[in-house]
Amino acid sequence: KAGVTQTPRYLIKTRGQQVTLSCSPISGHRSVSWYQQTPGQGLQFLFEYFSETQRNKGNFPGRFSGRQFSNSRSEMNVSTLELGDSALYLCASSLDQGKLFFGSGTQLSVL
Amino acid sequence: EDQVTQSPEALRLQEGESSSLNCSYTVSGLRGLFWYRQDPGKGPEFLFTLYSAGEEKEKERLKATLTKKESFLHITAPKPEDSATYLCAVQRRSGGSNYKLTFGKGTLLTVNP
Fold first, then answer.
1. Do B43 and A4 meet the contact criterion of CB atoms below 8 Å apart?
2. d(CA B35, CA B12)
3. What is the rounded CA–CA span in Å between residue B59 and residue B67?
4. Are B103 and A4 within 8 A, CB to CB?
5. Among A107, A110, B10, B59, which is disulfide-ready with B108 (CB 3.0 to 4.6 Å)?
């Protein structure tokens, strides 16, 4: 069974640009969550989608947004990038409540 | 607000030297406490879920325990391949579905041969 797939693996952007990250969950998983991981703050919850609806949202500015498609694939978008947005962005899918299966992440560097 | 504090931040052990990692938490109604392992360049990998005080779970050299305020991850006779960052997370009990996990910053474990 294929795991959670995130693309791209690495991304370099400049301040002010926008970026879109993609996540394909494990087949059959309808919940997709996104987390930001930095050395200083650790893993922080961004948002969670279930059946194309955002059910939970973390404390991030509106520049961070996401969506989920009918096939459960998800994308997250960050507009007007700032230096502080440099981080590992992790996607996780879930079948059972709480037991998350993570992808390898997208390492975003903002210059 | 839910809080998770892990200690120590980093731990170095010799192969075979048993030890424990600590996870202290405050949450308004605990639904579950989770342990994950993260290797460099990879996403976290699920290890255990604990639901109530007194519960214990084991997997190979790892054993997780839970009290009302903290959880311990005991590592017995570790091997170099156990080197990783171990993350603890809590999920709050709430009305309706809530998949949000609040993570600690992790403990970086290094096991020397």
1. yes
2. 19
3. 19
4. no
5. B10
Grouping H, G, I as helix, E, B as strand and the rest as coil, residue B72 is strand
| 8 Å CB contact between A83 and A17 | no
Q: How far is A15 from chain B (nearest CA, A)?
A: 24
B residues 16-75 closer than 8 Å to A (CB): 31-32, 34, 36, 41-46, 49
Q: Which of A55, A90, A94 sits opposite B43 (nearest CB)?
A: A90
Candidate from A41, A56, A101 with C-beta closest to B100: A56
Tell me the C-alpha distance between B33 and B90, whole Å. 4
Question: Mind telling me how many Å the CA of B84 is from chain A's nearest CA?
Answer: 15
Taking only the tens place, the pLDDT of each residue in B45-100 is 999 999 999 999 999 999 999 999 999 999 999 999 999 999 999 998 875 556 68
Q: What is the mean pLDDT of chain A?
A: 94
Alpha carbon dihedral A62, B5, B2, A5, in 10-degree steps, equals 50
pLDDT attached to residue A60: 96
What is the per-residue pLDDT across B6-17, written as a single tens digit (0 to 9) for each?
999 999 999 999
The structure tokens listed for A1 are 């069974």
